[in-house]
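Comment thread on ticket #2218

A.B. wrote:
> Attaching the input chain for the structure job we discussed in standup.
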Amino acid sequence: MKAVRFHQHGGPEVLRCEEVPTPEPGRGEVLVALRAAALNHLDLFVRAGIPGVRLPHVGGADGAGVVVAQGEGATRFPPGTRVFFDPGLSDGTCRFCARGEHSLCERFEILGEHRDGTFAQAVVVPELNCRPIPQRLGFIQAAAFPLVFLTAWRMLVTRARVQPGETVLILGIGGAVSLAALQIARLLAARTFVTSSSDAKLERARAMGAEVLINHARQDFSREAWSLTEKRGVDVVVENVGAATWAGSVRALARGGRLVTCGATSGPKPEEDIRRIFSKQITIYGSSMGTRGDWEQVTALLEQGRLEPVVDRTYPLEEAAAAQERMARGEQFGKIVLEVPPL
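C.D. wrote:
> Ran it. Output below, let me know if you need it in another format.
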């Protein structure tokens, strides 16, 4: 089969589209012939050099396709079933899994980071992670859904526990996690503030229901948040930028507010004034991926048409380097998706 992989860490130039053996499903697993694979910032970090990645490596966490083979004991999805899947892999046996906290699994892995991923014509995944693709969706839309909606759901619902009428500030609208967070915050009847340096992205977010738009290239977003809430601050900040925005995110919070973070695309070591945290009695939540329960909830909402993946643009599998370059430039509004030729 064809796969895009790298034999050394570096920039997009290290990606090669080459022939590799087709994997075989093990016990409880299915082989999925992929038709689409979506990018995440994780793919850039893995390619650039995360410790522990075994080379050569196939990146990619998100994908959608058709089951073509079943391993021993896998019976839920017969060959021919269109599926997409949760890319978080837990063993189901540790103390955290036992209490339903699968993303805290002591042996937790992410497809495309700890094992070969979806930038290929086929991938092996546990059948427990799979769900049928809703009939109204194609492979491209289905591939654009799992990681970002699962991440955003856990951030807003499971961790920050956003309530109706609360104010939620979402940084970097245009990024797929932020767009998923916008949709989920609106489902929760929260008032949504969004930031971007692009007026065009802000207007597209307005069309999706964002209520307050802040261009952080022209305005200090924390000052704007304070001004627009009559110096109260926002209840929740959805943070995935890291060093560049962290101090502003803390300043923007109301007394007793919550900051929930899932990433650090601008760097992991921000400056911090701890006095703001204890004096305002702020709670900071870390969040990563989601549990099987979270996955059940978001896929049910997708099936009902209450959540919708946002696709920026597509590239052929062979142009994965160009797709990653677009993501690195921050030009996208939604998910960048690779179209995968049939196996």
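A.B. wrote:
> Thanks. Noting for the ticket: The chain is about 30% helix and 25% strand.
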